[in-house]
Amino acid sequence: MREAELLADEVGLAHLSLAALATRLGVQPPSLYKHIAGQDALHRLLEVRAKAELAEVMRNAAVGRAGGAAVRALAHAYRRWAADHPGRYSSTLRAPDPLDDDALAASDRAVRVLFDILAGYGLHGDDAVDATRACRAALHGFVSLEAAGGFGLPVDVDRSYERLIDALDVSLSGWPRR
After folding, report:
1. What is the CATH number of domain 47-173?
2. Residue ranges per structural domain of the chain
3. Which of 18, 38, 51, 59 is geometrically suited to a Cys-Cys bond with 106, CB 3.0 to 4.6 A?
4. E strand or H helix that includes residue 82
5. Contacts of 92 (CB under 8 A, 6+ apart)
């Protein structure tokens, strides 16, 4: 699976196929079917492994921190991981299949990291869900635009990212309770 992960990061998730993986491994595509049921199974395995790895990276960054320091550490870890692993990052974006226990567990680990941070802001339940979606949308939007070369204005992109993190901290500190 490691070669599939590396290939996805090199060529992009949309171009990850069993044929491309077989070529990389120097085997015939039919021989991969002994290990992987097909294209969908390959992408599902990649999704589960990528979500679990990203969750671990975020957890390790945030552990022992609270509030803005935790958000900052998580945001930087998220951005680095997304930039270093663009194909795998793409596989983390979809909500998991509700019938896939492994995908649900991997997604839950990632969400739990953010929920734990949000608890420090006093956010729980539906408020934490809303805040999680807002954080994820902000971070994903930034890293996706950055990866696509979408920031052409003559201001340092790192500075802008720091300001985004500051804005998230301020927003979470004053999050309206429902």
Report:
1. 1.10.357.10
2. 47-173
3. 51
4. helix 67-84
5. 47, 50, 51, 54, 110
